[in-house]
Amino acid sequence: MMPWLYLHFPSLQLDALKQNGELGYDLQNDKNSRPLIVVEPRQNAVHQLNSAARSEGITLGMGLATAISLSGELVVVEYNRALEISRLQELAQWLYQVAADIAVFEPDGLALEITNMLSLYDGIDNYWQQIDTILVQQQVSYQRALAQTPLAARLLAQNQTHCADMHQSDYIINQQLGALPIDRLELSKVQTQQLHRVGIHHLKQLWQVSGKELGRRFGLEVLSYLGKIKGQMKQPLNYYQPPAHFSQYLELFHEISQAQVLLFPLKRMIQQMSCFLLARELVVTTVTIALHYRNDIGTNEREKEHPDTNLEISSAQGEYQTDHWMTLISLRIERAQLNAPVVGITLITGVLVEKNCTVDDLFSSAGQKGQMTPNQLISLLQAKVGKKAITGIELHPDHRPEFAFGYCAPNLSASNPNAPNLSLQNLGSPSPGKRQISAAALPKLRPLILLEQPEQLAQQCTILHGPERVRSAWWGPQSIYRDYFIARDQQGSLCWLFNEPQGNWFLHGYFC
Prior knowledge:
Blueprint: E1 4-8, H1 12-19, E2 36-40, E3 45-49, H2 51-55, H3 64-70, E4 75-78, H4 81-95, E5 101-105, E6 109-113, H5 115-121, H6 124-138, E7 143-147, H7 150-158, H8 170-178, H9 189-197, H10 203-207, H11 211-218, H12 220-230, E8 247-256, H13 263-280, E9 282-293, E10 309-319, H14 322-334, E11 342-349, E12 352-354, H15 374-385, E13 392-395, E14 405-408, E15 449-456, E16 462-472, E17 480-488, E18 494-499, E19 505-511
């Protein structure tokens, strides 16, 4: 069995446009879509085209002017090599689930070393079924070939209009290689012309020339190239390394001026991210969405009229599921202001953490839908009103009530053992003027509602418990000397009062 399987993707950019569901494209039947071509700007020629354009008589390599003259509804897109390389990395990432060694040939090919995988999947047919399932899900066009070396498999895949038989013999594969025209090899134009001058038009003719004669007449570069095809010389390969974070760029075929419309392309990106996290048993707590505006293309960073807008969406407990993230993103998008039409989106994950399995009561949430954890509620509120608007409370080691707590990032994943007891259920309904609360039973009670500044007491209250003397920070300008009481005011509310040595009474808080 041939050790190398090569996958050639002849129309990655075109497939990406169709996959993203751009307007004007029928994903079920490409022939019903508008004619579209991808043009290589340096050569001003057709680099990729869909079936609708092909039916208009347009062919690969045709000049742009000729192609436009053949179709009045032709859509022209400039070739973007960086986009194809990014998409190729994504495909390698998906195939990494079933392949250990993947060599990347930018911008349109992947070579898979399959020898060690065949025993795991019990043969080439079962193994190819796994690969084909991934490629179908990714909605990409491809050509495949098997060979003894990655370069030989690459040549066969690039020059075949159909997928090769997975059970071809060595003899058939060598016959196919030998029949390749010289101008289909990865040689320079000058080297191809030199070979044509001496009557060499196919690879099998080149193989018949001795190595010494080949190097003398055509140079060591051609000799080295042939040696790599046959496996006589080692070829350096760029093996795929899985990224530590998920990052994806999406180029929009149509500009988007309304923030809500961004949810459609974002959903597909989040689905890709969810699969990435699920395969690795990870969750992410922060996702950053960068919106690229129309004037970003071809401009210097300092000359950007509209810099990118970065939207940061957080999940308090970490999520991987698409629905959870789309809910948070939808709330954040509602508050987004677009500075210009959006032409591209970048999605980047923050810190990835291992997914922890939580054990809940078997019957507590059985059959209940729509239930959410406290951390999920925090995430929703932060996405709706902003991260800075939602805070938690932490205790400080200070006897002064004004300084005994502070604000912090909300975190309900663990309880605080130092949290004060705010329950007043034991207070009951005491008779006016009688103190029915034992100081030993309820030490250092604190109200849930504390006024920003103590207010002068303006009504008569019935004292229920106290005094509790608080004297602290006598060494500084913010010292206090107070006797605190729990009392009931004329409206029946439980309040927290204190008086000072001068005899003044103040209201400082309320118990709920």
